[in-house]
Amino acid sequence: MNILVTFFIALGLALDAFAVAVSSGIAAPRVRFRHALKVGMFFGIFQAGMPIIGWTAGSLLSDIIGGIDHWVSFVLLCFIGMHMMYEALQTGSQRSGVNPLDIHILLLLSVATSVDALAAGVSFAFLDVAIVRTILIIGIVTFLLSFFGYYLGDRLGAFFKKRIRIIGGLILVIIGVKILLEHI
After folding, report:
1. Sequential DSSP letters for the chain
2. Distance separating alpha carbons of residues 100 and 141, to the nearest angstrom
3. What is the span of the domain harbouring residue 84?
4. Does the pTM of the predicted model rise above 0.70?
5. Running along the chain, 184 residues long, what does each successive block of 10 average in pLDDT?
């Protein structure tokens, strides 16, 4: 697989993480460089790590993973998205009560957005793929999009206030539903 194809695969896998990073920036009480770095690192590491797991597992787990990956992503993204919308409607503050930098939230979001990368990793086992180069590209692209997406979310949140928190939560739910519908 050539580097251009690998880049577009990485971009496709990273778009969900980017959307979630934007939503996280919207929900964040205060955006700092280290926060954006943390979000980018979590998403980048998980997006790069999941294909390794998938590639290692190969075809042995493809039937099991293919049967539940969409449900896991759907439940996690919908839960967090609905919680964000609930908080936006319940509070008068400008930012959500959900702390997107909480380690548990970051882990949930990282897993939810990287399940597709796990499935892609399984397919890499059957292709002529330079796995180290591929995971590095996936990780770097995801890191950069998530890092800048977090800042973008902060800017959107400051401009649109409470409405953007509802939209951010809705985006997470829509991504979850999209993932579910693609696999049903």
Report:
1. --HHHHHHHHHHHHHHHHHHHHHHHHH-SS--HHHHHHHHHHHHHHHHHHHHHHHHHGGGTHHHHHHHHHHHHHHHHHHHHHHHHHHHHH--SSS-S--TTSHHHHHHHHHHHHHHHHHHHHHHTTS---HHHHHHHHHHHHHHHHHHHHHHHHHHHHHHTHHHHHHHHHHHHHHHHHHHHHH-
2. 21
3. 3-183
4. yes
5. 85 86 83 94 96 81 64 73 75 58 90 83 77 95 96 78 68 77 78
Question: How many domains are there within the chain?
Answer: 1
- Both tokens assigned to 97: 């009560």
Q: Phi and psi (nearest 5°) for 32? A: -130, 165
